[in-house]
Amino acid sequence: MTIKIACLQLDIAFGNPNENERRVEREIEKISKNHPDIIVLPELWTTGYDLTRLDEIADEGGMRTKAFIQKLAKSHHVNIVAGSIARKTDRGVTNTMYIADRNGIIVGEYSKLHLFQLMDEHLYLQPGEEMGLFTLENTQCAGVICYDIRFPEWIRVHMVQGAEVLFVVAEWPLPRLSHWRTLLAARAIENQCYVIACNRAGSDPNNVFAGHSLVVDPWGEIIAEANEEPCTLMAQIDLQKVREVRKQIPIFADRRANDYIAAEKNFLKKS
Ligand SMILES: NC(=O)CCC(=O)C(=O)O
């Protein structure tokens, strides 16, 4: 089964949800003419990293963004992996991804587990508490957010539960572009899955961002990659490739999970 993907590599207006909603609505209107199956947005697309003003600009319970995304998904009959937003909750602000299906139903949500200190997330945000598993187009998917890709064990626990496609939404700065490309290819190879990675373009007062949204196949080949400019990256994935690679090198059958657990318990006992 093939799935047509569109990554919206947006230049995000700093701290301006109204302008960013206008940009996303305009771009999805344009993208929909190519009839993608799934549209992907970047991390914190409503606010950018304007973390000092979250009391004013974060979305209470995600209600505004969920309604906005549900309307777009339903009216364009397209699935949307809606990047992430700053969501106000009763335990503080989380960096939260919502996923809507073609009927405008929210079929998943995930809040970033690993807070990135280099961009002050630990000062303003709360970590997530749940995994990011969901189903789109009858396909088991996982969703993670930016810094999460540096933690292979977090990605792996999603993959052992059946995920075949990993969505990554990000605001990844240009100085670490080589890490972005290498880490994404590594997560695809070690998990024998597609990796669909949507980064932002442009800059904010503290960072120039890398763009370079990309799609990696289960063999680790980058099959589509953007440059640094705002754009929409289109790609087609074929899930049969996941099954072929996993049959050729059966890593999930060859895993020795009990040994890993025993080794970690042994280490923890000693420390
Ligand atoms: N928004 C992020 O989590 C950035 C992560 C990053 O830049 C990294 O190097 O990791």
TrEMBL record:
PROSITE patterns documented for this protein: CN_HYDROLASE
Family annotation (InterPro entries): C-N_Hydrolase, C-N_Hydrolase_sf
Residues in CN hydrolase domain copies: 3-239
Protein name as annotated: Carbon-nitrogen hydrolase
Keywords, sorted A to Z: Hydrolase
Keyword Amino-acid biosynthesis attributed: no
MF terms (GO), sorted A to Z: hydrolase activity
Pfam family, one: CN_hydrolase
PANTHER family from the UniProt entry: DEAMINATED GLUTATHIONE AMIDASE, NITRILASE-RELATED
Organism placement in taxonomy: Bacteria, Bacillati, Bacillota, Bacilli, Bacillales
CDD domains: nitrilase_5 (cd07583)
Keyword field contains Transit peptide: no
Source organism: Parageobacillus galactosidasius
UniProt record similarity statement: Belongs to the carbon-nitrogen hydrolase superfamily. NIT1/NIT2 family.
